Each structure stands twice: as structure tokens, then as C-alpha cells.
Predict the 3D structure of the following.
Amino acid sequence: MRMRDLMERSAKTKTQYNMFTMIKGRHETDAKKDLIEDLEDIFDWGEIYTQCMNKLGSIEDLHLFVTGATPVLGSILNYCAINRINVTLYHYDKVLKQYIVQVLYNEYDLIKEGGY
């Protein structure tokens, strides 16, 4: 599903998403908030976890613009899995010049939807 389609669906259902850019200042996105700020070491798992905890709290769904730094993404996904947060990722396609949506589900969501 393309971002435009997701946004249109969101507007129709009036759903509010918790939308973040993964790392502050790396790329322009439609998100108004940054999940990770002022990170000196992309391998500082504790700092990444702390920033996730401070920003995400007890949300159920995270919409995240992926802006590089794979180790940071791995830590964010670990945090979300531990805290049963559903994740939708937005990856930039340089050829199409738009974001491509990737929906991830956790075990809790599959059970809730009757997948097991």
C-alpha cells in the first residue's frame, strides 16, 4: 500500500496515527515528531530504548519513517515487540520518489484479529 492510499484511508476513518521520523534531521518526512534525538552512538542500545520509552509510552500503533541507521531500527522494533506495539514502516523509494508502506504485526495483534 502506498502512503497516499494509507493517508486517504486514514482521512476517511479519521484515525489518528502516532507518526514519527526515526532519527531527527536525517530526511524530510510528513511526520511532525522525531523518535530519536541527539544520539551520539547508534550502538547505544540503552539510550535508544530510553528515548523510545520516553516518546512512545503506552501507544498501541507506531507509524515510523525509516531514515537509515539499521541498528537504530532494530532497537526500535525490539522495543515495540516487547511492548506489543504494532508497527507500520515507511521506506523511501528513490525511483518512485515516494514512501512505500510496510505493515508489521506482532503476535498480540494476530491473536486479537483471530489469526491463531
Q: What stands out?
A: Strands lie at 19-23, 33-36, 61-65, 86-93, 98-104. The two ends are 24 Å apart (CA to CA). The longest strand covers residues 86-93. The longest helix spans residues 70-82.
